[in-house]
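Hi L., both proteins are below.
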Amino acid sequence: MPEIGEVARIVHYLRKHLVNRTIKSCQGFEDNIVYGKVGCSADEFSKAVEGRTVTGAGQQGKYFYVTFDRAPHSVMHLGMTGWIKFSVEETGYYKQAKESTVVEEWPPKYMKWLIKCDAEKVDGQDREPVEVAFIDARRLARIRLVDCDADKIRDNSPLKENGPDPVIDKHILTVDWLAALLRRKKVPVKALLLDQANISGVGNWVADEILYQARIHPEQYSNTFGDEEIKRLHDALTSVCTTACETLADSKQFPEHWLMKYRWDKGKKDSNVLPNGDKIVHLTVGGRTSAIVPNVQKKTAAVAGDVDGDEQDDRKAKPVKGRKRKSKADQEDEDEEEEVLPAKKDRSKKVKAEKAEVNGDSAAASKKTARGKKVKTETAEDADAGADVKTEPEETKPAKGKKTKATPEKEVKPATPGSRRSSRNKSG
């Protein structure tokens, strides 16, 4: 998902194509999540923006804002898949700023608003007409209006509830400030970095890069670090975030020694290594998949839990605090796929196969009873017990499913003596 560097890229293009221009028209597309979750509406946004002159654009971590010649102004968040597109230039960071002959579809899909500006002369320069679109396929973005003076926008919600930005707030985010933050909390250090209430803009891959360069294990508790380790963490935090912003998230410009260049081959043992041969492993910290290099990132004090990397079941490694913290941070940090889903699917197939063997006398009844919670639970437990289940199918008691879901009551009454239903009635 877009992190601090990608948001810096958006702000760069907003300043290039929109600042100091008058908005001729703004068409908002109603979305009760993207707008409604933050107390706004597409109609309110359109009326507030249309006819206004854009005076500035800026960011604080993962949030960015556009200010106008008068209030209200707009503060936005890209969520997981949000982006700002321009009709005159391709801005996607994944394109590596490379010239392309492919003409992109316009207007784009999944628009939340579409702004149009006429050709005009600004500061003695001719500026061509431009259309700007906010898109978001997954609807996790947020668009809101903030009624305040333009220079006070960071003193109002939602920006005031977020921590300092590692790039624009270097005068605040000092070594001493970071040391005090770490020592007054007891959470895994990666979870602390991902919490936007602590520090703005750090997402999953950025946090992994910071911790790798600082030679710190992501699970180590935040209150266990010495002065030297805190200084390394501060230097890496500032350096990684600054480089990501200055390069506008163009990964081709990232240093070759960065972990980010090699971390994406999860599960590929031959390729999931650094150029020097050090292995990259993945584990779950604070509910998020983390890439680490064990040869570099050693545990030097208490940690949230010892995990064996790729061989550990991610479900067992998720701490409760991490899940609460994730929801507190506006759902913005979901850029890694969990390993749990494939495991669940495989287990489901296994249970269904065993169920078919247990009730092989009636394929139709087996399909229906497999949906019953009680039968499914008993089958899963039997699967753990071993092969005894296949030799004694009566113990799984699938007839309850017949009574409640598969076979009407009146069809069961003429059942002959000795059937499974009759046996249970007699014993009861």
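That was the first. Here is the second:
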Amino acid sequence: MTKPQKQIHLAAHFPGVNNTTVWSDPEAGSHIEFASFAHFARTAERAKFDFLFLAEGLRLREQGGKIYDLDVVGRPDTFTVLAALAAVTDHLGLTGTINSTFNEPYEVARQFASLDHLSGGRAAWNVVTSWDAFTGENFRRGGFLPQEERYSRAKEFLATANELFDSWRDDDLVADQAAGVFLRDAGAGAFVHRGQHFDIHGRFNVPRSPQGRPVIFQAGDSDEGREFAAAGADAIFSRYAALDTGQSFYTDVKSRLARYGRRPDDLLILPAASFVLGDTDAEAEELAKEVRRRQVSGATAIKHLEFVWNRDLSGYDPDGPLPDVDPLPGEHTVARGRAQVRMYRDPLATAREWRELAAAHNWSIRDLVIETGNRQTFVGSPATVAETINAYVQADAADGFILVPHITPGGLDGFADRVVPLLQERGVFRTEYTGPTLRDHLGLAHPDDARGERAAS
């Protein structure tokens, strides 16, 4: 019997703080003006994407004791942007990254419940933890919360927020055409939580929202992060977009669900993915090389190398060979507030590997950084990109992709106009939205469904 084709999930990542955007391109626009967010969101909705995704940047990044000035340095508040986008879209999901280390459950639950009401059931929360005390210096808590406690706090934070969301029931309210809406049950919204990290009680003052709870995303890659996602997330934001690594990650995370009484389809795997389109595959490959060169200037290459070497390399020629000195071990002090630092957990081994690659291919510092760090996920004609995305999803390397264009805000337009119609012709992507909420788009059950049966996608 032929296996039915999986439906592909697509989302759009407004990049914000990043090394992806080609800032020098004349089409590159503001990352703070609302018009940029609105254009991006409307394009995603026109293409029938599931949701828009916003990351979070809570402190200006530094390198060598100075503000890192080679990419964008700020971003508006997540809830403010998403609430504004709710007014200019009708169907698109609105996903925001909100930190569990520096916030409080009541505050965050109230904000997401409000967003879910304002948007008609389109809110989603990407739950993350802080990973450095540098960012935490901006907050009372983060400067001293030990790393080993951050996931413990995140788990209890999410559980507490869910208790607040669930403190209202549908039958707590009565609608009267003349009198409006009033309470039937005086106990509505009451909650008590006593745990290791939170000891709170009171009344939650936002009624049950259209989705019951926002859709929950998780973005951690560690073993703790994968387990956290398997226990309570609806989707995981992965960095494994290649076929082989994607399949390995997919299998690992999905295999963890059964121990929590969940099925494989209860958690979606959605890697971030970049793309370059051309009229032909050859044209796209040439354009992709040009984009990578523009993303990684000589100065950017040196700064990236400092992530691993943990020392000042400003005296080195980016078009010359790699440093012959080894990385400095110990606490990282050169690059602060950058997630990339976590990727290189064994700097000495990374340096050895990179020297071998550079020697084998005659790569300069800049060549190495381009080839190891800035490869686009999908490159080719629209037909090739559509075929590859579908092949990856059908091969269980992902359930879909969160697309990150290299131009903001117009970089998504070509994908929407040229690739999406081909996926629709294949019957693997929707031609219209079939429900009003983000849970409908993602095929996720409503939390009030006692049977836990999966909603129709």
